[in-house]
User: What shape does this take?
Amino acid sequence: MNYYVNGKTFAAEPRPGQCLRTFLRDLGWFGVKKGCDAGDCGACTVWLDGVPVHSCLVPAFRAAGRQVTTIEGLAGHRDLHPMQQALIDAQGFQCGFCTAGLAMTAATLTEEDRQDLPRVLKGNLCRCTGYHSIENAIHGMKSIEEPLPGEAFGSNLAAPASTEIVTGKARYTLDVHIDGLLHLKLLRSPHAHARILSIRKDRALAVPGVHAVYTWEDVPRLLYTAATHDDYHSDPNDTYILDNVVRQPGQRVAAVVADGVGAAEEGCRRLDVDYQLLPAVFDPEEAMRVGAPVLHDKGAESRIQRPGRNILLELHANIGDVEVGLEQADVVHEATYSTHRAQHAHFETHCTIAWIDEKHRLNVRTSTQTPFLTKAKLCYFFSLYPNSVRVFSERVGGGFGAKQEMVTEDICAFAAIKTGRPVQLEYTREEQFIGATTRHPMKVHVKVGAQRDGTLTALQLRIVSNTGAYGTHGGSTLFHSTGESVAVYRCPNKKIDAYAVYTNNVPAGAFRGYGLSQTIFAVESAMDALARSLRMDPIEFRRRNVIRPGDPMTSLGLEAHDLDYGSCGLEQCLDLVNDALVDRAALACPEGDEWLVGKGVALAMIACAPPTEHRSEACVSLEAAGKYHLAIGSPEFGNGSTAVRHQLAATILGTSPSRVISIQSDTDRTGYDTGPFGSTGTTVAGKAVHEAAESRRDRVLDFAARHFGTGSDKCRLEQDAVVCKGTRIGLTDLHDAAREEGRLLRVVRKAYGTPRTVAFNVHGFWIAVHSVTGEVKILQSVHAADAGVVINPLQLRGQVEGGIAQGLGWALYEKMVFDQEGRVVNPTFRHYRIPAYADIPRSEVYFAQTTDVFGPLGAKSMSEAPINPVAPALANALADAMGIRFHDLPLAPDRIYRFIFGKHPRDPHSAPDRGNLSGSDRGLPADDTLAPEED
Amino acid sequence: MDLNTVSEVARPSTRDEIPNWSDSDAWLAGGTWLFSEPQPDVRRLIDLEGLGWESLLVHEPGLSIAATCTISRLYGLVAPPEWTAAPLIRQCCQSLLASFKIWNTATVGGNICMSLPAGAMISLTAALDGVCTIWPREGGERRVRVVDFVTGVHQNVLGPGDLLRSIDLPAYALHKRTSLRRQSLTHLGRSSVLLIGTLCPREGTMAITITASTVRPIRFEFPGVPADDELRSKLQEGIPDAWYVDDVHGTPDYRKHLTLYLAEDIREELSAGGSV
Assistant: This one.
């Protein structure tokens, strides 16, 4: 049978059980993406005889003789289909991995369908955008601008890769054809804790197509950490590429390399592993007790602080005297807040292709946020010189921190070195849940006191973070969790005790917010409770207590050495949210007495770089064609930083962003970059671009000045020329002249993540909660962000909206559920629900007017931070509406209803948890919210 | 996803051509569930598409739906105007978590044979007195009410090699007044509870069919519209707590609570407005 794809005929035959998605990719149509491979996300949507289907669910043989259209064929003979153009115009994407499927769906919608987007977009999930820009695209709204030369800064520039993304031509990690590619699959542990006594390979090796099987006995026995930081000492060395002890269900046990995925899977099924089961522990408090099973019986070289008590790191700090502060307080709130495990759910799963080239160099094409750090680890493992390894990514399909981790590169590179063949490892969606990282669940006991006038007197936190089976970012996130959440409040007495603890769960890692989201949920809930106790407006209460420029930012220590107020828009953000949260009377409240209405706010501060070493190098060259070439090591994974960097460079060079051509994230072709994490895409990589572009400009002008025999102050750069006293010299000619003189055409500048400034976010909600069904409706969502000078309002708004959506997912629905053996019960998008279009309200987004003294042209970070105040703002609104304060998440209807209806009537006298309020003997009212009992 | 253990596809065009069933066989209708999860034990797919069953037949006895009828075909049905229950078809399709794109391949029979609590085609056909026609492995035909077809989560009366051929909705049921209520933890998400009430305009009998909240469909029939306390006590007595589903899409107590609440809502709606 023949297959017809995008007007071409193919005689190839699919395998009997092959789905259409992989068959199309085998034929070279790489625009067809895998998000879930289970029909839930729609990234693989194609047309079959003009009808949209999820190609991951369609048996490939059923497409025989029918017309298949993929994103590559959507435009037909046009340059772009109108929907593709609309997606560019409204920037209805960020990482772009879901975009092809969205375009293939949206292009089929009728006018009637467009009026019912919640239903028709059920089958198209997006993790980045928060759906607002997608809605705008479908409604044909144009948001982008084409700035004049030199005026890109501050404009709504489209992402430079826009056309490639909407046409399916943007190449993500696995969108390449490589001859002789082998596939690697991992056998994973069914047990939470076990010693591997033996692994018999013979039956696996007998499977036709299997080339090799690797176990812990085959790989270098070197301890490392999968977390990537410039200084690897930041994280514990507690991991082996393959180990003879498994510490979580889902841990790698062995790797099988075969001609195809099917043979590798079969090989995994035929491995005979003999396990000696060991006792397991899942609760971090239990894990810290004497006599608990010890996960890592390792020495000081592991940098685990107290391995015998499963404590990766503990932190203790005392500023002032909290006991005195609590005595001075007129009202005290004390409660334990806990947060759950969640998954990043970036759409491009972890994946890598590794090969040895003809020069015997190791090449690693991979989905990473940190190519340079990954390269360093690979050199360490395999004793390779840095110049014999190349790690790169073209475009990364989302990360949210998950790819600040070496998840697939190590074993894939090992297999490539051993077999001498190119090897690919692609995580399934299930593996994302069981064999990657998650957000750290944290239990935060808060004790906070204030005086009658609202002045904070004491702030005390005890934090217990569950890092799971491996430390990775456990220590660093613990450190971060104690930072800005506490430092943002001016309070003379602070005390922190914090523990990062090993358990036999799937490990936690870096995830947008990096520990802060969890403690901010606790602190902002507690502040709200205090304000309510004092009968004080929660925003007014915060105004009184937040830091102002000049105040020390104190948390773990008196002050971080390099953290400073480059600018401070916190009060503006509070005002913006306060002003925008309209009167209740103006809200469109649902009808009926069952709906309870409430308002909540929360704030968040974040440092605009991590305290660990962070640097970036930008190279700006003048090219023969008179364009500029920008090379930067920082990858693009949907954070919009490429557009921002083009704007910075084009503005300084007086040209249009389209005349800046950039390459990025390639250890062979770009200078060193620590990686876009810790909110550094703009503040560090952007700063390097800023400085390189300025230097490039100055040199061009100097050269031109000499050419004209005048001073450089008389010359100015235009789109493609230097103009001096009415005469022009084209950049092409200038380039040639400079080269003739042997002048350097490249300029390299480095930037460092220090000193660090601070950015702020405030979120506010009006919500209605149904007192019978527990359903939450968001009536108004308002977010104010202080990102300094806004380089690109459109991209920034997208980051904020995406952060809000991810925050709402965590606050309302998303929760990884485990069985008694520690296995993930819901490792699919069908059962782990990330927000769909229907779940996310439109938010009002406001920006504070500040100019930062440290950031490039006054700008600050704002891709990570918007998530932080969302969950507590929602919980505070719920407390306002229901009179019940939830101390944990998610705020799902089946948990909410229980506390409004029946079991816990709204009666303050039957409150189960009121002993924590000390204000009564001073005649002050207590927080009028109740605390639900633990589930 | 790829089902890499599958090495063969049988594509019968008549019942006689259906090969002898083995334990490593799987029926392939739309494939939307089969291809959505790993199936390491499946070696052969038996594709039902080639059997060429007429998707929908509107005739005097009612509506006959082939098991292989896609959801989108059913959704697009132009029903006779006197079928007052017809709007329920679209409501149930829209109650599926699956998007309209999945409807283009997913089948009514597949949804019923999957026998998940939230299978909205079960809700629809159980509420409208549907009867399944089964082709037993050994030959012949067997008929069983939809409400009895599903026996638990992922469980039904089909034995290995048995095949669901069609579902018949009797005309009298299609003339009933209906009322649907559902709730899910996320907007338009998988149903935590899906209740359908029907009222027979001729005889005044009322039925409430409970799905999604319970491990199998449960139907309560009343000679007329019951009083609120009668309905409540019938439901409370008739559904043991253990029958309420416990999974990530809703706790059992929540499902019970909503079942009782929404049943009353339906009762009120059907008791108002008289017969159609």
The longest helix of chain A spans residues 681-708. The first strand of chain A starts at residue 3 and ends at 5. DSSP finds 25 helices and 31 strands in chain A. The two ends of chain A are 58 Å apart (CA to CA).
